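Incident log, structure service

09:12 report received: a user says their structure output differs between two submissions of the same chain.
09:20 pulled the input from the user's history:
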Amino acid sequence: MEIALTCVINFMKSKIICSDRDLIGCVLLGTSQNESSETDFKHVHTLLQLEIPGAKSVIAVEKLKSSYSGSKLGSGFDVSFADAFWVTQNMFSRVTSTLSTKQLFLFTTKEDPHSKNQHLRKATQQKILDLANNSIDVEVLGLAQPDGFFDLSVFWQSSLPQLRDKLTLPDPTVRIKELLFRVTTKEYTSRALSSIKVDLFGKKFAVKVFSFVNIARKPTGVKLDKDSNKEVFSRTETVSGETGEVLMPDEIRFCQKFGVDKISMTKTERDSMKYMATAGITIMGFRSIKSIDFQNFLKSSHFIYPDESSVQGSLVLFQSLLSSCLKQDVFAVCQIITKSGAYPRLAALCPQKEDIQEESGIQIKPPGFHVIYIPYAEDMRDLSFKINQPRPTASEEQVKAAKAVVNKLKFNFDPENFRNPQLARFYAYVEALALEKDAVDEPEDSIDPKADAIDKRLGTVGEEFVRSIGLQPGSGGDGGAKAAGTKRKAETTGRVPPQSSKKVASGVNPAEMRQAAAENKLGKYTVAVLKELCELYQLPTEGKKQNLIETIQEFFRHN
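09:34 re-ran on a clean worker, output below:
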């Protein structure tokens, strides 16, 4: 129970940040409480109704987890899975908005429920079919038994439509990280940007377009009225430069420069210039996969997968094309328009073979095509450089020393192991405020290089490389950079350490700047000069210009 509740808590926190419009509910089985909305099912308790999660929902589950006791919430009752499934289906049916996906994640230790009660067993199987008919996907996340094994094939494989034809089944696990990984993976794989048709030399089939990568950003701040605390909105108006009058849409024209002339046109005339075409993919031909030039990629790729629900037979055609491209080691060149009104782009459809982890049966890579966007002739830039002096060459000793450094610092890189430290810190503070925590859980900076670990792995290899290029270990060279393989001092925070010299920088006049601070005129100095003064008086140099000014003014007021 504690493992499942921890997973629910982290899943809600993730959804609040990543997808704040998703609805989440929570139903408990095997409880002494019998609160299940409008029903009186025994040992089924609705902890959270299906709604957008917030601080209140997270606090409720955290409170239950902290007060969890086996005597109150246990598996000693004869739980009816069919009743629990009925409650969850009823929760979905009461949602008035349109849901793109409906998913039910079942955390259970029972690999063979109702083995001694055939009536409840058949009722559970029938209810799973009812859920599937209502487009509700059920995924069983088995919590391992005391013997450390959860066998899906005993009951759940034959009951869940998506598992019936599987030759290998996922291994159960009680490790929270794996449970969370499965939940987030399951959530995001079913979301498509659009569904479009592919024209394969006259034969058409449908595919869904997915996005694997999208830059994560902090949410935009919402402006509120200081008196009512209600959201305020901005409005944009176009005014005449001569009279200042507000112009209506039909009073506005557009222009395009043609040399020194300005060609005036209406909105209708401007729109007629746009390239109009139907959304879809048109395959132009095929080329060897070895001819792809990675420097010409324009942006993050998309991924396409067959959409059998839009055009029957799409799966067969798609699979035939994918198998042929994989066998012949080629990619398809195509024109793609992802949605109506979008501009056509050139793209390379690079085939990807399905990859399944043998031990767990979890899909690592899905079968399909990566849509890699390539430039038009007008997008290309000539970046050839002419070097008018002899190019320096590295000696055999230097190359050997550099190779040794590279070999020592090789590691298995995976982007999923590195989190954006700025986002992590931002959400940690927001979460602490929302959940009324006394302290902020400072997130770990996963991109901060571990200097001690790097130095330990390098050993003497780093020093040998530094000597090979003519430097002494520990010296910074001309640029002041730290030498590879040398011990680095821990970063200091707060005040800057005392300087070894009291010589004042040329841009700093302490007496003059003290007078400027008294007259509130420090803004006329550059950031570099302000920082020099801060270093002179051992003051913090972090922050923007205004922070430096406030720091200096505060210092002069008390000294």
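09:41 both user submissions now match this output. Likely a transient worker issue. Closing.
09:42 reviewer note: The first helix runs from residue 2 to 18. The two ends are 61 Å apart (CA to CA).
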